[in-house]
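> call design_seq(struct)
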């Protein structure tokens, strides 16, 4: 199981390969919270999401065969593996499902990886990837259920605490639970960790209710990044002990959070990246008076044409630009 010392070691290993992303303090009225928020901006990470942390930690921890690496991904993990592999001079082959956005597929190709689009969902792409690895001799980098991945993602929390000490609660979007497992392993009960999932992709909530990982149906606006059919066994072992709660958000709430992040802060977040903020905007999570809350904005690989400003949410500062 991943422990804080594994995360510290990962932080040292990947230093110089990933960005130390900023924390933005946001006034309370931006998301109608009792106190200002501390937004950790992982959408500014290389390849547009937090994922290069786990990818670099994995590649720098293993002996890589001549066939290189392979990964299955809804898009962000693939872009991260492609970025890390190119930086380290390693061949990469990425398998993505048909639900992946063209923006993400194009980005993976631009980063130099070979891309195969196959299967309706992430699990289908994973099966294709595993068959390729057995055939070609490439090693795999799992998107979330691997110790090196979890420790790499946990460096988000290590940085966050250094930048914004004294947080009471952090809100984290959840797909396969690698990110939240790393964050929860770092905070380990010192900070309340809340998982935020789409109503249509609730793998962690279902696992916690059942007492073990279970398969769930997957659909919705954020399915390409938060659409894991089940959480990983390693991730569940951490989350059952160190995640305080999970909340669900609708597609409408996610879209509203995307619009708010763009309208007020000019942050272009993808649906999965905006899900944690949606928990506040929708009221799925209501902070107590005096509670210091951090929100992880974890991905920015979005088609900019989809960022529609709400007519009822115009930024009054825009009037100064006319």
């Amino acid at each position: 199981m991943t422990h804080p010392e594994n995360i510290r070691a990962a932080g040292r290993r990947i230093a110089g390969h990933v960005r130390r992303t900023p924390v933005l303090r946001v006034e309370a009225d931006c998301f109608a919270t009792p106190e200002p928020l501390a937004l950790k901006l992982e959408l500014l990470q290389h390849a547009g999401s937090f994922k290069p942390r786990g990818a670099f930690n994995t590649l720098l921890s293993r002996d890589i065969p001549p066939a290189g690496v392979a990964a299955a991904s809804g898009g962000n993990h693939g872009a991260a593996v492609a970025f890390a592999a190119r930086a380290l001079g390693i061949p990469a082959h990425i398998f993505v499902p048909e639900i992946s956005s063209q923006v993400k597929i194009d980005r993976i190709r631009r980063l130099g990886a070979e891309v195969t689009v196959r299967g309706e969902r992430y699990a289908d792409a994973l099966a294709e990837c595993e068959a390729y690895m057995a055939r070609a001799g490439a090693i795999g980098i799992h998107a979330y259920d691997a110790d090196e991945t979890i420790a790499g993602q946990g460096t988000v929390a290590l940085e966050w605490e250094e930048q914004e000490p004294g947080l009471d609660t952090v809100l984290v979007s959840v797909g396969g639970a690698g990110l939240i497992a790393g964050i929860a392993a770092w905070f380990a009960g010192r900070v309340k960790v809340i998982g935020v999932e789409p109503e249509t992709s609730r793998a962690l909530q279902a696992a916690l209710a059942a007492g073990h990982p279970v398969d769930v149906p997957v659909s919705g606006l954020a399915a390409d990044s938060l659409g894991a059919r089940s959480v990983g066994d390693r991730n569940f072992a951490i989350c059952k002990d160190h995640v305080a709660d999970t909340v669900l958000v609708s597609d409408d709430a996610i879209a509203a959070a995307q619009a708010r992040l763009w309208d007020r802060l000019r942050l272009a977040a993808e649906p999965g990246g905006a899900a944690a903020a949606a928990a506040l905007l929708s009221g799925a999570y209501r902070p107590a008076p005096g509670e210091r809350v951090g929100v992880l904005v974890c991905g920015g690989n979005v088609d900019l044409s989809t960022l529609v400003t709400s007519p009822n949410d115009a930024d009054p500062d825009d009037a100064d630009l006319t």
